[in-house]
User: What shape does this take?
Amino acid sequence: MPFLTLHVIFNLILIVMKKFVKNFIGKGKQVSGLLIIKVTVNMDGLEHFTYEFNGEQYLTFEVAKMENPDQFGREYTVYVSRQEEVEETYEPKPGKKAPRTSKKVKETIDELAEDPF
Assistant: This one.
């Protein structure tokens, strides 16, 4: 049983990364003849993205030009970008060389192999 446990420790690597996740909240289009973008935003669920500063509520969002307009002619998208932790499991491909382990890690593994509980 300890061999199986050690095998799992070596072959599965858990990676915790922070990624920016875009939460789309609306779309818009440019007002003809002006450098103004008119945006329509869905108000449901926006409270989740607001924050307080000096007793006032704020919402920070981004407006980006889309590659192609949608079926209604809207050329811009509106989203709130938030940084979230994302866990990913990485399993090395068979036949690849195992990563090096330090002396301290090897000692801990040996101790677990002798007395797993």
Summary: Residues 1-9 have pLDDT under 50 and may be disordered. The chain has one domain: 2-114. Residues 2-114 form one domain.
